[in-house]
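Work Package 3 (structural annotation) set out to generate three-dimensional models for the target panel prioritized at the project kickoff. During this period the team completed the workflow that converts sequence records into C-alpha cells, so that structures can be stored uniformly alongside our sequence database. As a representative example, we reproduce one entry of 345 residues exactly as it appears in the project archive.
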Amino acid sequence: MRPEAAFDPPRAHGEPLARVSVRTEPEDFHVEESLGFAPDGAGAHVLLQVRKRDANTAWVARELARLAGCRPGDVGYAGLKDRRAVAVQWFSVPRGPRPSGQWPGVSGEGFEVLAAHEHARKLPRGALEGNRFRIRARGAPPPPELLEARIALIGARGVPNYFGPQRFGRGGGNLERVPPDARSLRPAERGFVLSAARSLVFNAVLAERVRTARWAQLQSGDRAMLDGRGSHFAVEVPDAALRERAERLEIHPSGPLWGRGEPECQGEVRALEARVAGQYPQWCALLEAAGMRQERRSLRLAVRELSAHIEADSVVLQFRLARGAFATAVLRELFALGDYEESST
C-alpha cells in the first residue's frame, strides 16, 4: 500500500476547487530556472541556458557531453526538471574546442541551447535561486470569486512544503526498493532511494502538523528557517517579534530530513518528530546506516507572484518558488490533479 504521506497528505486550505489535468501537452507545464548570480564571463567552463521539451534532464546532459567532447560526469546542472514539460534550465560543460559563441542555436532531439557564457566553475546541484512556473490547468474552471479568495490565501499564508510524488518514483517504486542493508543499494539507485526515504519521513511530520493546524506557526522548541535559505535557529518561546516575521513569510517552522543523530528541535516538537519517524523504522534505519546526517527543511513554502487567469476551459497559473520546492505543493491546494504523474528526470 502506498503511504498516504507520500502521495495524498492532508491539504491546508480546504477542499480542491476543481478537478483538472496539467499534462495534456508539454507546453501546459513551463518552468524556468533563476540562477541568482551572473556568469563570471571567463573561466574553464561554459554555462549553457537550454530549453528542453518532453526531454529527460540526464539525457540532455549526456547529449551536451557528446557535443562538448567530454565525459557525462563533467556536465553540471543545478537540478532535475520535469520531463513532460517545457523547461529552461542551466547546464555547464568544460570549455573545449567549441567557443562559447558557437553554442547558441546548437540543438538536438527535444532541446536547444539558448545562450552561453564562460564561467569559472562546474555548475553544482542546487546552485540556483528558484524557479518560475507557468502552468495551464485544463478543466472546468471554478467560480472566479472562489479562485480569487484561494489565491489570496495562498499568497498570504503559503502552502505546506511537501515533497512531490515524483520524489517517490513512478508508482512509488523508489520506496519499494528499500533494502534491509544500505550496502546492498546499487550506485545507480542509491540517491533515488535515500531521497525517497527522507522525503517520506519529512512529509509524514508535516502532514501531522497540518492535521493539527500547526504547520505555519512557530512552536516552542522549533527550529525556525529563513525563507529561501538553509539557515535555521532555535525558538525557545515564539515571541511577538518572531510571530510577526513568520506572518510576513520571512521565517518558517522546519521539519527533519532524517539521518544520524538527534533532531535539533526540542520539547513537544522533538517528541512529535520522534513519534512520527518511529512509524517508519525501516526507512529511518536505512538513512542512518547510509551515513546521512540530520538536517532541516522548511515546513512552509512561500508562493511568490502568484496569479491566475481564467479561460473557457482552463486556468493559467503563474508563480515563483524557492529552489527545492515542488509545484505540486501549490497546485494541490487549488485543484484535484486527476491525471498528474510527474517525472523529475
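Confidence is low (pLDDT under 50) at residues 341-345.
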